[in-house]
Amino acid sequence: MTKPNLLNPEFWISLRKRTSLDGWVGVEECSYWTNEVLDLLREYRPHGFIRIEGGVSSEQRLRHHFFVDYHRALGKRLPDGIFIADGTAGQIHDDYLLGYYGYIDDAPARLRVFYKEMVKGF
Q1: Alpha-carbon gap, residue 98 to 17, rounded angstroms
Q2: DSSP assignment of 23-86, as one string?
Q3: How far apart are the first and last CA of the chain?
Q4: Residue 102: in which H helix or E strand, if any?
Q5: What is the C-alpha separation between 27 and 35, in angstroms, rounded?
Q6: Element (H or E) spanning 10, and its range?
Q7: What are the residues facing 72 on neighbouring strands?
Q8: Residues 22 and 80 sit within 8 Å (Cβ to Cβ)
Q9: What is the pTM of this model?
Q10: pLDDT at position 38, please?
Q11: FRET label pair with 12: which of 20, 47, 76, 109, CA 20 to 30 Å apart?
Q12: Measured between alpha carbons, how far is 10 from 32 in angstroms, rounded to an integer?
């Protein structure tokens, strides 16, 4: 099997369509999404993605009007930075209903609040 471009958002959206979250945003479903996608990624070993997770303070949650205070996604360290695959980013940022798939430094500020916490010690 030809290995797909794991940095292409379309690849991740196609994987997302194969999960139980297909067709909806997935409120507080990040754990399910990461588990299901890691299972699907077995076809493409070695892929190098790991589950990352982290939370924001109560102050940050109130300031940014977040619905959630803890989040999980997949991450991979690359020479250009840390790549994030987050199929449930829509619960944090309305512009990413099908997820965010890109480098942490390119993510919108609202998502970066979580991602910076998630990659501490990564």
Answers
A1: 9
A2: TS--TT-HHHHHHHHHHHGGGG-S---EEEEEE--HHHHHHHT-S-SEEEEEEEEETTEEEEEE
A3: 30
A4: strand 100-103
A5: 15
A6: helix 9-16
A7: 53
A8: no
A9: 0.91
A10: 95
A11: 109
A12: 20
Taking 70 as the threshold, does the pLDDT of residue 63 lie above it? yes
Q: pLDDT of 85-121, one tens digit each?
A: 999 998 889 899 999 999 999 999 999 998 998 898 7
Q: Using DSSP, state whether 118 is helix, strand or coil.
A: helix
Q: What does the alpha-carbon distance between residue 85 and residue 25 come to, in Å, rounded to a whole number? A: 15
What is the residue whose two structure tokens read 């471009």?
5
Q: Ramachandran region of residue 55, left (φ > 0), alpha (ψ -120 to 50) or beta? A: beta
In this predicted structure, the answer to whether residue 42 has a pLDDT above a threshold of 80 is yes
Structure tokens at 25: 């945003």
Picking from 70, 50, 65, 67, the residue whose alpha carbon sits closest to that of residue 115 is 70
Question: Does the N-terminal peptide bond of residue 108 adopt cis geometry, omega within 30 degrees of 0?
Answer: no
Residue 72 phi, psi (nearest 5): -130, 145
Average pLDDT, the chain: 89
